[in-house]
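Page header: ASSEMBLY MODEL / two components / 843 residues total.
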Amino acid sequence: MDRDENKIEELSDTSAETIDASDEEDERLFGHQQHPTGADSPLVPPLFTSLPPIQDSLETETSQLQNRTIQECLPLLAAAERAAGGAIFDFNPYGLPRLDRERHVAFLQGSLGRLPSGFVAADASRPWMVYWALTCLYLLGQDLAQYREEVIATLTPMQNPDGGFGGGHGHYSHVAPSYAAVLSLVMVGGDEALNLIDRKAMWRWLGDLKQRDGGFQVCVGGEEDVRGAYCSMVIASLLNLPLELPSTSSAKQNDSDTLITGLREYLARCQTFEGGIADSPDNEAHGAFAFCALACLCLMDDPQKIINETLDVPRLISWLSSRQHAPEGGFAGRTNKLVDGCYSHWAGGCWPLIQAALDGPMPFDGPVAPTVGTIYSREGLTRYILCCCQGKRGGLRDKPSKHVDAYHSCYALVALSSTQHSYFYMGTAPDKPITPLTAAFHWASSPRVLDSNGEIQEPICDEEDRVKLIHPIFVIPWGVPETTRAWYEAKSGL
Amino acid sequence: MGSYADDSKWADIVPIPQDDGGPNALATIAYPDAYSEATSYLRAIMAKNEFSDRVLELTADIIDMNPAHYTVWLYRAKTLLQLNKDLREELDWVNPIALAHQKNYQIWHHRQLLTDKRNAYDGEREFIGEMLDEDSKNYHVWSYRQWLVRRFDLWDDKEIPFVEEMLKRDIRNNSAWNHRWFTVFGRYRPLTDIKHTEQSKQAASFAPLSQTGRTIESYPDSLIDREVAFAQEAIKLAPQNQSPWNYLSGVLREAGRPLATVKPFVEQFANLDEPEKVRSSHALDFLASIYAGEQPTSGPSSADESQKDVKKACQALDLLAEKYDPIRRFYWGWRKDIITKEARATGTA
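Prediction written out in full:
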């Protein structure tokens, strides 16, 4: 896209002079252009342009913040309705603004460069900075192999002799930066990147994080939560680490104890009375932890089997479904909190996993035929991401009043990909049962297209606004988990 | 803070400069000089495993510049414990940092480590209150309070009034509702019972794991009545507030009471005879569950089938899909599918 300026935000500005003289010019030139839906019916369904049908009169801090958020989103959601003349070309036939691909690429490339001193707060999160940007750049169509040497150079000093990665050189090993570092290395791929990881030490270190109650600490002596469990299991699964607990693990009580002993029980204890999942038992249900827990379960076994046996699924779905707000269209992380671009993935990313739990494995040798299908609003989520999260100068954000950053860019774009694809758990042939920590390698996907009648059930992006396919559990490019695992399986020993 | 290089106290230390990956490294940060220098001394100190008073000064200096540096907090905690420092004093030092950095979570793990070691909780609930005055839904702060209550067995008469005060300020504060749940029911779900794992394996045959692990057969009626009434009073204040609805539903399910026991109450806010006058989409959702004859997910008693009416359940779900909560229309449709399929299978349609 070569537009000189992005009109999305100007158009949303309720204050004034949003349409400049050149638009009048455009109108004369393109006056014959009519929107495909016709002039009388709105481009954007009223659901996304009007206030919720029921609002209580009692005002509290929560309702004030919620109303403010609606007010900052509405003009952006309805921008296409007020776009006159040539500005109409900034929107697709469903009233969605274009994905500002070039500016996003530029912003994310910038986030991999030299960062100003204000980024000191990110000093313990540098592997994350790398992971977020690479994931975005892949989604936007960039080739990641070009970053291979840089990624290796960046992460090498962060790997500790104990096997984990720290957030920076000299930082303690921690599962969050280790997750980000491992994913970044496998995304750029190649022997050197994959050989960099000391798998034997990593395995021992994960054994140190394992707790007797089944969960994982995030670092030795650090807090225990479902992030710890998800990140550890992603690493163990991708790197083909042994399932058994190293003898050095203090969690080892019986010879038969493994990395996943008691883990399902631990995750079950994190489900709350609301149906959602907390970071650890007793705490409040939260979208980010729901994703971690569900993805962790999907790493362990067939989603239909393990999710239904572990969690109260109807309550979980009831809670998750309530996190999607109208008119905003996006997801909030908790009950009575605000939508935020990152929950497009954390909460929104639960849907493919839950759907697999409802649909069950697709017939191993037959056509893919989901029985349940989508039970959230892909349209709403797409609208929130494209209308409300895109920053004027590239990058994506929490909500219109916030600044863009690599973190929100990553999870908004990951979610955009999820809205554009369907995912299926394929299962295995009857004579080849799932072995622990290999379940996530048996997924399939397809882009969402027109249905058999040639109609779109829910508005989707234009073809040019499609982003690449991402794995719903590992959250890295599609296909990379399988090739990575195969590479490590082919390597003899640890 | 002056330069470490010029300070005779640090003369014996050879700083280890940061290796940020060479000229091609990604996402490098233009650190302020003071930060670069201090972290170079930290690496050197950690390499020799030194625990001393000057380490406390150095870690304080770095925390001041970057409180999100988890390693420096952990190393500081180790140092404090090695030196047998007064941990209450440390907590007092931490308080203003926590107040200034609301989103920081390293501080809360630090606090938990120290409080656990101190084996005392004086001042802690008061400080939590101060934090929540600034950000009433701070996840880390609430989590810390839950840990504190469990750790020190504070299932006493201070927690419920505290929750009620928080809810008086904002009846929609879901973190406070979660804390109420924890305060009322948490003590019946111990976390430290390792045998729980074995029990739950058996229980999994008839209920999802998350519904197991309770130590009480049935709750006192008075307790459940009190909680039901509390949720109902809250709903009357603002019927479209989802938190007390979730709470009400949770309490009934936990106690094994049929949802239908509150049907007259629910109908004050959503009545199928007056579909234009629905005052709460959550009431409509609740009503659909009642008409669907949903089973309580735990507890001894079974569902009350007397209120089951598939047609009415579908009517409520249609109203939600078409009018009162259409962003979730596929979800409502899915619920409807389940109910109608079930009905066809059992011949009750």
